[in-house]
Amino acid sequence: MIVAPSLLSADFATLKQQVAAVEKAGADYLHLDIMDGHFVPNITFGAQLVRDLRPHSKLIFDVHLMVEHPDEYFADFCRAGADIITVHVEACNHLHRTVQNIKQLGIKAGVALNPATPLSGIHYVLDEVDMVLLMTVNPGFGGQKFIDAVMPKVERLKQLTANLERNVDIQVDGGINENTAPGAVAAGANILVAGSFVFGAEEVSKPIEILRQL
């Protein structure tokens, strides 16, 4: 099980220390939510923050672009140290080309779907992507309630990826905690993004250990 703490829920006054804490606790990825205030109703941070954190961590930097016109930002985030860049199906006019543009940079490509977006939008890129992110909340803010209705979509995606000749990771993001994570894992997810559950704990090692053992 891959655990990806979401930096969105961290204390931004002590980011370097918090990233070090989750790395020491056994996290695998650092999930970085990039929001532009247009695709979602919030603004977070940009490539400069990723660049500043990169020398201080060996975690996989998992950059989740919740932005309009995502292709404009790939080069900046790749240079900043991204290992994976994920784009939203809903934000891409030419999804296949967008995925190819990411992979040409020598990093992994992921595609994300909002809770109400059907899997049909990614059928023709499954052979190209490294990861599919299924949002289990509506994107834009941390601390939201998990949407159980997404679980059948996770199960269906697991069936689709099982027929491929290559591994495609299934990531879930939103409302992940000790109560919701087991169902997501049972449905087929192998990467768990957790924000408030991890960074809101007195000791980040405890929630990370819970998730890693699923």
TrEMBL record:
The keyword Protein transport does not apply. Gene3D superfamilies: Aldolase class I. The active site is at residues 33, 173. GO terms for cellular component: cytoplasm. A divalent metal cation binds at residues 31, 33, 64, 173. The keyword Isomerase applies. Substrate binds at residues 6, 64, 140-143, 173-175, 195-196. Binds 1 divalent metal cation per subunit. It catalyses: D-ribulose 5-phosphate = D-xylulose 5-phosphate. This is Ribulose-phosphate 3-epimerase. Belongs to the ribulose-phosphate 3-epimerase family. PANTHER family: RIBULOSE-5-PHOSPHATE-3-EPIMERASE (PTHR11749). Its EC number is 5.1.3.1. One of its GO terms (molecular function) is D-ribulose-phosphate 3-epimerase activity. One of its GO terms (biological process) is pentose-phosphate shunt. It comes from the Bacteria. It is an enzyme of class 5 (isomerase). InterPro entries: Aldolase_TIM, Ribul_P_3_epim, Ribul_P_3_epim-like, RibuloseP-bd_barrel. Pathway: Carbohydrate degradation. Keywords: Carbohydrate metabolism, Cobalt, Isomerase, Manganese, Metal-binding, Zinc. Catalyzes the reversible epimerization of D-ribulose 5-phosphate to D-xylulose 5-phosphate.
